Amino acid sequence: MPNTLDRHILSNETSLTHIAMEIILISFICALSYLLILSKVFSLTFVIRTQVFWDVVFTLGVPVMFLGTFSGLCTAFLAGFFFTLITAFLGLTDPPKKKNTYKL
Known about the structure:
Helix 2 crosses helix 5 and helix 4 (about 50-65) runs antiparallel to helix 5 (about 70-95). The protein has 5 helices and no strands. By secondary structure, it is mostly helical. It has one domain. About 75% of the residues lie in helices and about 0% in strands. It has helices at about 5-10, 15-40, 45-50, 50-65, 70-95. The mean pLDDT is about 80. The N and C termini lie far apart (about 85 Å).
């Protein structure tokens, strides 16, 4: 006799991989939208230079909004992971600027 999760999967014709792919896609869209909002409020270079702060705020702040459901917490933590990857990649593409030095 199948358990309730198996019956749910069989009755709705969905699979766990389909649900996992939805969570991953929603997490990626959430991370991109957060980056877009931050780059509109601040400049993208400012977000890249302060990426550790934004990573911590996003990874710890978003799960608080999704408390109550396991899929919400999974989505929030994966979104934080994707946001960290995106900002790290953007940090590698942004070359460091030279400091202002004056020679006398």
